[in-house]
Every structure is written in C-alpha cells, then in structure tokens.
Design goal:
Number of domains: 3
CATH class of the largest domain: Alpha Beta
Radius of gyration: 23 Å
Number of strands: 20
Structural class: alpha/beta
Strand content: 15-25%
Helix content: 25-40%
Strand order of the largest sheet: 7-6-16-17-18-15-19
CATH superfamily of the largest domain: FAD/NAD(P)-binding domain
Shape: globular
Distance between the termini: 30 Å
Largest sheet: 7 strands, mixed
C-alpha cells in the first residue's frame, strides 16, 4: 500500500499514475487541490495568487490536453517592471530603456564587467555573490537584490543561489545593449507563454484530476503522527493506516514534526528550515482594463511594500463580472511577522493609485486579504545541510518527498505533476501510461 500525505497536484498525480497499485491519498482539508485552487467572491474568481500553467514536457502537455480539451488558452506573456516611476518590459536586465540615464549606464557597465567574472558553480555561493557575477553591480542593485529581498524577506547574502539556474534568465551582451536602446527583448525566461482556463480559475486543473482519483482520496483526513519504524500513520481521529511506501507532499517541516518512535530524532531538523509567508490582497474594481495590457508587474523599489501585482481579467474574461477588473497584490512576510492587515491594504491601494494602476475615483467592489503560509522556501545553508541529511535518511525508510513543499524547493505546477508521474513510475516499476483507468468525460 502506498500512502500519500497531501491531496495537491503532486499527491493526486502520484495516485493517478500508480494505476492499479493500491494507494490512498490523505487530504487534511475538505477539498483536494491544495494551493492550486480558486475562490469566488461576488462573481470574482481569485486564485491563491497567480497560478499560471507553464508546460514544456510533452507528457504533461498530452495529459492536460486529454483531461481538459479546449479549456485552456495559450497566452503570450506581457509582464512589466515598475521602477523609477517608469514601466519597463520584463525581464529588467534586457529592457533597460526608459530608466534614468545614470541607472542605464551603471547597469550596462556593470554587465560588461561581469562578462569577465566566472560564474560560481559551488552550491555554497550566496545569491548576492551569484547575482553580481552574472549581472554586475548595476542590474543587481537596481532589480535582482531588492526584488528578491522583498519576495523572500531575507538579505540576499544570507540566501544560497541553488534555486536560480532555471528561473532567472541571463541575456547576452547584444540583448542588453539593444534593450538599453529601446529594442524590446521578448520571450526570455521559462514563462514567456502560459496557459490559463478560458472560464473560471485554475481550480479546473486539480478538480479534473481529483475526479480521476476520487476513489483513492480521503478528505478531512489529517495526519498527526508518523511512525516510520512500524510504517504506520495516525490520523487526528486516532485511526492508524499501515503503509509500504509513504509519499509526502505536505510541508517538510510539518512532516518532520509528525515523526514519532525511534526515528523521531529527525524532528529536530525542522527548526532549521525557513520560509516566507505570502500576503495577498485581492481586489475587484468597477471598471474594465485596470492594469492596461499587463498580466503582471514587478515592483523592486522601496516606495511600495508589495513585490508584484497581477491582473486575472487579462488572463481570462471569465473570472469577473462584465465591465469590471480584478487584480491581486502580493507581499512578502516573515513567517513570524504580525501585520495590521487593514493598514497594509489601505497603504497598498494608495500606492497603486499613486502609481497610476488605480484611479482616485475607482469603486472597489471586492477587497479580500489572505495569507499563504508557507509561501516560499528559503534557500540557505541550513536548508542544504538538512536536505543532505534528511532526504537519504527518509528514502532509506521508504519515504519519498515530492512537490513544492514536500521536497521543500522552488517549483511550479507542471513540476508537481511530473513529480507524481516520475515517482509512480519508480514505485510501480512500469510506464506511467499503463494501468490508467477509463477515459475522462469533460
């Protein structure tokens, strides 16, 4: 029996791809899907901040097309950076035109000097050192360092750079020079296009997957204790479930604190893992076209507290009433940080108005603030040490860590689906395509 803790995309993907292998998904909440869900308020559909589907692996492309034919639109990214009171195309490092001349000069000269600096390949290198080596001082000081400090709420010198290789695009010198002169560089980065449902929010994806594995999911099944020596999980109501293999998608610190019995010494490692919390302000506005053509905007400067704003009504017309707009505004918070949510929302609305995104006379139809905890995993040397010890120790006991929070990493929806597929192949010893149950009716 394979027991899977957590009914998000990674957990359900594992169950789906296990085919006929006996398994049970234990989901603590009343619905499956985890953070890949949506909430509807007065006709506005809000995801748990921006959840956009980036597909590259042909196996996942085929699955999504099979599960949800014609449901997703493929959209070319229109992302911007708001800095020094101007709006620049994303990515910053390749589109410097419009910034004050002295900033452009610093960015260009710093990038040119960085071409002679070897890029550190040690896992020990900190993010600030990595950024200076890759982009130079100007680009680092203007965007890379302040933006990521806003996002993670940690000094860049305290974080490692072992998460950035696929997520942060590096242009060549020609692209940087062209961007400084006003030639827009498009298509850089892993998210140059994305998919989003034509109607409703991103929850259509976990909903259809939950339907495929509905006989294997137990909702409101909160795991409280795990005994790896006896290979038993204990639920909040006292029920005990035996397993042969255990798949963990719940946040790793939470799982480590569940351990009991002789192997519970690993629980002490949980305190070494850190994360940020994402505060998200959702707004419904009684006016169309808020945000212009932007899908999302980054805010690296210290004149506003938020680091990003996104505009769901520019992803899909089906997420808000006709004639209205929606947006979400994201804040990075320390995990122990207490804030005055009402004051933060008032300040954000004032800043959005000052920046020209909102108008003074805009009527706010919906205002909703949520906290996502954990939000982003903090990559630091403590994390490296814990993962180097914990991952093999758990694997030797038949415990597999997958998904963004189980594997305690920087991830995305396609990767969660792939985690489940690839683990299922290893556990079942057969191709993922074998053993699937009947065609899905959508």
């Amino acid at each position: 029996m394979v027991v899977i803790i957590g009914g998000g995309l990674a957990g359900m993907s594992t169950a789906y791809h296990l085919g006929n292998t006996p398994c049970t998904v234990l989901e603590a909440g009343p619905v499956a899907g985890g953070l890949c869900g949506s909430r509807t308020i007065d006709g506005f559909v809000f995801d748990y901040t921006g959840h956009l589907l980036h597909l590259r692996d042909p196996r996942i492309v085929a699955l999504v097309d099979e599960w949800l034919p014609g449901v997703f639109s493929t959209i070319e990214r229109k992302a911007y950076i708001h800095s020094h009171d101007v709006r620049l195309p994303f990515p910053f490092q390749a589109n410097l035109h419009g910034l004050p001349p002295e900033v452009v000069s610093d960015c260009l000269m710093g990038f040119i000097r960085s071409l002679d600096v070897p890029v550190p390949d040690s896992p020990e290198v900190d993010f600030e050192t990595w950024s200076l080596a890759v982009f130079g001082r100007g680009i680092s000081d203007a965007f890379m360092l302040p933006y990521n400090e806003k996002l993670f709420r940690r000094a860049p010198a305290e974080m490692t750079a072992d998460w950035v290789a696929w997520a942060v695009p590096k242009p060549n010198l020609e692209q940087v020079v062209q961007g400084a002169l006003g030639v827009v560089n498009r298509g850089l980065g892993y998210n140059s296009t994305f998919r989003y449902p034509t109607r409703g929010g991103i929850e259509v994806l976990p909903n259809v997957l939950a339907d495929r594995v509905r006989d294997r999911i137990r909702l409101n099944a909160e795991v409280q204790r795990v005994d790896m020596d006896r290979q038993v999980v204990t639920l909040a109501d006292g029920e005990q479930i035996a397993y042969d293999e255990l798949v963990v998608t719940t946040p790793l610190p939470r799982f480590l604190n569940m351990l009991e019995g002789p192997s519970s010494e690993l629980s002490s490692r949980a305190d070494k893992l850190d994360w940020s919390v994402v505060g998200c302000l959702n707004l419904g506005i009684d006016r169309p076209d808020v945000g212009g053509d932007a899908h999302w905007i980054y805010f690296p400067d210290d004149d506003s507290r938020y680091y990003r704003a996104g505009f769901p009504t520019n992803f899909s017309e089906g997420v808000a009433p006709e004639g209205t707009s929606s947006l979400y505004v994201e804040f990075g918070l320390r995990r122990d940080e207490v804030i005055d949510e009402e004051a933060v929302c008032r300040e954000a609305i004032a800043d959005l108005t000052r920046q020209g995104i909102l108008r003074p006379d805009d009527r706010i139809l919906v205002q909703d603030f949520i906290r996502i905890d954990p939000g982003y995993v903090i990559f630091d040397r403590d994390r490296q040490a814990v993962m180097n010890e914990v991952v093999p120790a758990l694997a030797n006991r038949g415990v597999h860590l997958i998904g963004r929070y189980g594997a305690w990493t920087y991830s995305y929806m396609e990767r969660a689906l792939l985690d489940g597929l690839e683990l299922a192949e290893r556990l079942s010893g057969c191709k993922a395509a074998q053993g699937r149950q009947g065609a899905l009716g959508v």
